[in-house]
Design goal:
single chain; Glutaredoxin; 8 helices
Length: 203
């Protein structure tokens, strides 16, 4: 018997795997990776909230990190336009707008994100604020027509006639999350008075 035969390396079992199957498994893995990346992750308390840039209904770009640089930021994801104006969103937005001076006293600003299908979203957002003569300087509403920020924060309520889970975050100047609340129902909303208790005092 030839001794070298005993030490002959074994052939890799990968060669016996059909190329098509290998390609499919690789494609499936990469699809899962990119899907998770596209959806993002909801930042928890103590984590840094992802930055994003959206626009107001007049086309003004609003960057989250620029907002937080001004002071504490209350970031609120509304349901936006799921096919109608959500009465819970209108009530919540009006509540925070009414208390704008209280937030200003704490050097805090409020950023409202209004998501929905791209078609006519700016017009719907303007209708949403129709009862407001004008927004206070420390309250800004931006639209999220392609769910860019909604997906980035993994808040997409992917169901018929839904857009995003109503959510509230309090962010410090470095975008660190000080408070978060994710609602899984229409009426479960934070109030301005509740959030004011969690906003740090101005220095």
């Amino acid at each position: 018997m030839n001794p070298s035969f005993l030490h002959r390396p074994k052939r890799s079992s990968l060669k016996s795997v059909p190329f098509g199957l290998t390609f499919f498994v690789s494609y499936l893995f990469l699809s899962m990776v990119f899907s998770v990346s596209a959806q993002g992750q909801t930042p928890a308390v103590g984590q840094i909230a992802p930055d994003f840039t959206l626009q107001t209904t007049t086309g003004q770009a609003v960057n989250l990190s620029t907002q937080t640089g001004k002071g504490t930021t209350v970031l609120i994801f509304l349901r936006g336009y799921p096919g109608y104006q959500c009465p819970f969103c209108q009530k919540q937005a009006h509540d925070f707008i009414t208390h704008a001076a209280d937030f200003a006293a704490r050097k805090a600003n409020v950023l409202l994100v209004y998501p929905g299908p791209p078609a006519d979203l700016d017009q719907h957002a303007q209708e949403f604020l129709a009862k407001q003569a004008s927004l206070p300087s420390n309250v800004v509403l931006v639209t999220d027509p392609d769910y860019k920020a909604t997906n980035l924060y993994s808040l997409r309520w992917d169901a018929p006639n839904e857009t995003a889970y109503p959510s509230t975050f309090i962010l410090d100047r470095n975008r660190k999350v000080l408070f978060e609340r994710i609602s899984r129902s229409h009426g479960d909303r934070t109030t301005a008075s509740e959030i004011l208790q969690s906003v740090p005092s101005s220095k």
